[in-house]
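thread: overnight batch results

M.L. [08:02]
morning all. the overnight job finished for the chain we discussed friday. pasting input first so we're all looking at the same thing
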Amino acid sequence: MRARRVLALARAEVLHVVRDRVTLGQVLVVPIVQLLVLVHAATFVLRDTPTWVVDQDGSRVSRGLVGRLAASGHFEVVGVSASAGAGEDGLLSGEAALVVKLPPGLERSLVRDGRGVV
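M.L. [08:03]
and the structure it wrote out:
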């Protein structure tokens, strides 16, 4: 019984949209225009994100990682320090939008376990 009511209501709405040219145009044209105009507005690609690196390891591997971050084009390294406070200050001042922390012992854990926590 309920399915009949839903189908009858859906049929009435479809007939209403098909009969009214303005509504039909809105239903068909507006989503297409939105797709064409807004296709590049929302993206999840990171480009030139101002990044502060807190390098507490200070090893060759961590310096190489900082170099790779800078060379990737996704991150713009605006500062490197050994203190987490400097990274927080960069965030609060608006100089950086992201802080990457390289903990002490990163190189050792990469060599020993093949994994490192960043």
